[in-house]
From TrEMBL:
Pfam families the UniProt entry points to: TetR_C_6, TetR_N
UniProt entry tagged with the keyword Transcription regulation: yes
Residue spans binding DNA: 33-52
One GO MF term: DNA binding
Protein name (database record): Transcriptional regulator, TetR family
Keyword Repressor set for record: yes
Annotated ranges, domain HTH tetR-type: 10-70
Length: 201
């Protein structure tokens, strides 16, 4: 019986998190209340507070769930069969596609970036999330380049930071000045060349 209650509790917690992501992506943090999230989850406001003691705690858990979803999609694409460079290329394309297509989880991360300017707890949670993202790039993508005998000219963490910064910066440009299909092809080719230039035989 206790296990069944725990399962229901975990299910409703995930229900709140998924509703929060969908609502925050659609309305933004400034226009979203706890009641809005409860309504989207089809639960009471008390149920939201049962799982999350404060809005900050809710946002931190939302951040974790967003990162898990984003990272899982990149890993799934990367783990498909292929030569190392092709797998790296697919992963970079997936990372860009998520930003280009406005994946809800990435929209929420952008909202949290704005909030982090005034909220130290969210800022630290975002910093930790970025470190995990860089570690994923190093442990998965760059590891394959090292297997090819390529050696980094700069620290691999710096290279990962450059890749994420380029993708995030391009997504901001795309939001106000859409990147065309031909520009996207050139852009991805340039990103690939940039990554290769960071490594040497």
């Amino acid at each position: 019986m206790r296990r069944s209650v725990y399962k229901k509790s975990e299910d409703s917690k995930l229900q709140v998190l998924d509703a929060a992501i969908a609502t925050l992506a659609k309305r933004g943090i400034a226009d979203t209340s706890v009641q809005d999230i409860a309504n989207a989850a089809k639960l009471s406001k008390g149920s939201v507070h049962y799982h999350f003691a404060s809005k900050d705690e809710l946002y931190e858990r939302v951040l974790e769930r967003c990162c898990e979803t984003i990272e899982k999609r990149v890993v799934e694409v990367f783990e498909q069969p292929g030569a190392p460079m092709e797998r790296v290329r697919r992963a970079v394309l997936e990372m860009w596609s998520q930003r280009r297509d406005g994946l809800p989880e990435l929209q929420v991360l952008q909202e949290l970036f704005t909030l982090s300017r005034q909220n130290p707890a969210i800022r630290q949670a975002l910093a930790d999330a970025l470190k995990r993202s860089r570690k994923q790039i190093v442990d998965i993508g760059f590891a394959r380049l090292l297997e090819l005998g390529l050696k980094p000219k700069v620290g691999v963490d710096v290279a990962a930071r450059l890749l994420l910064a380029a993708l995030d910066g391009l997504s901001l440009h795309h939001a106000v000045d859409p990147i065309t299909t031909s520009e996207q092809t050139e852009m991805l080719r340039t990103l690939e060349a940039m990554m290769i230039a960071i490594f040497e035989l």
